[in-house]
Amino acid sequence: MYPKNQLFIAGRWRDGGAGETLPVLNPATEDEIGRFAVATEADLDEALRRRQRLRETWRKVPAVERAARLHRAGAILRERAEEIARVLTLELGAPIAAARMEVMIAADVFDWSAGEARRVYGRLIPSRFPGVRQLAVREPVGVVFAASPWNMPVIFPSRKIAEALAAGCAIIVKPAEDTPGCATLVVRALEDAGIPPGVVNLVTGDPGFISRHLLASPVVRKLSFTGSVPVGKQLAALAAARMIRCTMELGGHAPTIVMDDAPVEPVALMLAERKARNSGQVCNSPTRLFVQSGVYERFRAAFAEALRAVRIGDPLDAATQMGPLVNRRRMRAVEELVADARQQGARLAGGDGRIGNRGFFHDLTLLDQVPDTARIMREEPFGPVAALQPFDRLDEAIERANRLPFGLAAYAFSASRRSLDELAERLEVGLLGLNHCNIAAAETPFGGVKESGYGSEGGSEGIEGYLVTKFVTEAPPPA
After folding, report:
1. Which of 420, 319, 311, 410 is nearest to 363 (CA)?
2. What's the pLDDT at 53?
3. pLDDT tens-digit profile of 121-139?
């Protein structure tokens, strides 16, 4: 059931030049489930050569034909949803029901991008000079290097590939080392959908080596990266050396504000479900919860109860609602943040640390009265932990929410129109959910501000990062 993870270069699946492979572990059992190929410098150079040669081929394919092939890729993902979902669960530990949903969302991404391929418009600009024609033409930026993370291993590579292909770009994709199988299956779907050989390339191996080598090449003209803030800054610096255009979707530390007039129990249940999603390993997961004093104790009790009700276990069991963390590093990071918060005076209001001694299972953990000095109030936990703080005035909550250099997502709950309007105006984020948590879809823009990155994926904005504007002006021949 687990795929053979090879490199995909110029339409051919093959091993790395040195024959080296690295293991992929099942986070629920810690067993090795497969291996992936390690790309060499020669492998990357071959990918770059083929990309340059095939760039013109794909960009000249009519937009309606590009759209048709992207629609076909989405249809193939739906046909293979069960196979892909099972691989996702084996690699990431996400519950099988959530894995199936992710595959369907990725298929929607291909369909949306197919539509966007048909809507790349230029414009005619009226001239101030008689007989002069002025055009603003939209063209593909060129060859794309896309690095995708492990936490949404089907959606993220799909989004980057779909938007690049819709614009007419060729792409080299590097998936995360923890979840290469999902990207392999996405690329196989594209191959079977009729994407010409060499337009989509897949490389795996040492992420630092691959990124440095590809970003140093004059062939690459666009970087799309989703991942942590520190790594994003390093890649942005490498890209800046060659003025490579970037879309950077980096980490967050989502503040969540609950006002006195919010319906406490429904909000607590909604946030518990969102916190359990992918074991909290989601960049827009609610992490810093600011609750107004009038309902603080009531909310804490309701939230703790909702967290305890989440069923944690075998991710292949249809009844499981939360699986393990992706690897031992994440487990250790979460444990260290919880220990630090407790040493700083936070109280444990729910959760009991690691579950069992096999697999990377960690209980949903609630920290109460967390001081600002605790690391978890400054560092994204990226795990099943939430930190609670009370507040009295809305100004105070907004100031705390905006305190960090991150600005990806935020949530707020209130029955007051005035409060919601103020929150929408003053919260410094790229994504804001008011009275609900559904802030991402194929048709909506996804991106952050401040150190959470720049540019957007999804929506009509998503394709913009893959296009450049050329101004063409034409006058009659000189007399």
Report:
1. 311
2. 60
3. 999 999 999 999 999 999 9
Question: Residue 319 burial (CB < 10 Å; 0-12/13-18/19+)?
Answer: exposed
CATH class of 7-250+452-471: alpha beta
What are the CB-based long-range contacts (under 8 Å, 24+) for 414-422?
A: 414/257, 414/259, 414/261, 414/262, 415/259, 415/261, 415/262, 415/263, 416/259, 416/261, 419/259, 419/261, 419/394, 422/394, 422/398
What is the predicted pLDDT for the residue at 352? 84
**Residues 307 and 289 sit within 8 Å (Cβ to Cβ):** no
Query: E strands within 87-166?
Result: 123-124, 133-140, 143-147
pLDDT at 54 over 80: no
Alpha-carbon span 449 to 415, nearest angstrom: 27
Yes or no: say if 137 and 168 are a contact pair by the CB < 8 Å rule.
no
Architecture of domain 255-442: 3-Layer(aba) Sandwich (3.40)
Locate all alpha helices (DSSP H) within 309-449, ordered by sequence: 328-343, 394-401, 417-426
Q: Which residues pair with 132 in a beta bridge?
A: none
Sequence ranges of the domains in the chain: 7-250+452-471, 255-442
Active site residues: 249, 283
**Nearest to 214, CA basis, from 149, 143, 271, 161:** 143
Asked whether the predicted pLDDT for residue 56 surpasses 80, the reply is no
Q: How far apart are CA 253 and CA 270, in angstroms?
A: 18
- What pLDDT shows up at residue 55? 63
Answer yes or no: are the C-beta atoms of 475 and 132 closer than 8 Å.
yes
Please state, as a whole number, how many other Cβ atoms lie within 10 Å of the Cβ of residue 134: 16
Position 327, amino acid: N
Read off the pLDDT of each residue in 206-213 and give the average, rounded to a whole number: 98
Which pLDDT score is estimated for 383?
97
